[in-house]
Amino acid sequence: MLHLGFTLLLALVLGDSLGAAFPPDALKKSFILSKYQFLAPQELKAVQKMKAQFEDIMLLSDRKCTTRLFYRKWNTAELSVADRVMLVEAELELATAMLGLPDAAPGFAETRQRPLAFLTQIREDLRGWMATEVPSHQPSGKLRHWLQKLQTAKKTETIGCLEASAILHLFQVLNDLQCAALQEQC
């Protein structure tokens, strides 16, 4: 009985000191990014199915772009973690906006619902991480230039071009997300 009481007291003391060493908010904040190091296979499958269906639709349409939005002379790994998160957040903002558009292609609206929900959740998680971890972060020159290119494309390119760019490069966006989640070289 004495042994049980001592064990309980020890657990309470250790639990309290560990709680002070690892505040719940800190664990939650780091979990936001770490949960995206490995993406769920069913989510990746849903994105792949949507992308394949979109490619079939594109064969029947004429979507030409003058901006190579997702082409960059630098690698995501060259950016700081905060820049990586900001990059993915901007990429996801474009992707979710384009996936949210009404579509005339039969069946595509249904196919894109799961990826849209998945990508929207990621975007919201990243916004929360940025707001708590680095609320006043200013992007590096590389990222600032790319963000400016994105804003210009949004003003000058057609919706069809932006939609095609966003959907066809979703796996690059998810790779950028995993790079940000690793918080190291990727």
TrEMBL record:
Q: Which Gene3D superfamilies match?
A: Interferon lambda
The record's keywords, sorted A to Z, are: Antiviral defense, Cytokine, Secreted, Signal
Localization in the cell = Secreted
One of the protein's GO biological processes: defense response to virus
**Record's GO cellular component terms:** extracellular space
MF (Gene Ontology): cytokine activity
Where is the major localization of this protein?
secreted
Q: Where is the signal peptide?
A: 1-21
Q: Which InterPro entries match?
A: IFN-lambda_sf, INF_lambda
Family according to the record: Belongs to the lambda interferon family.
Q: Please give the name of this protein.
A: IFNL3 protein
- Which lineage ranks, top first, belong to the organism behind this chain? Eukaryota, Metazoa, Chordata, Craniata, Vertebrata
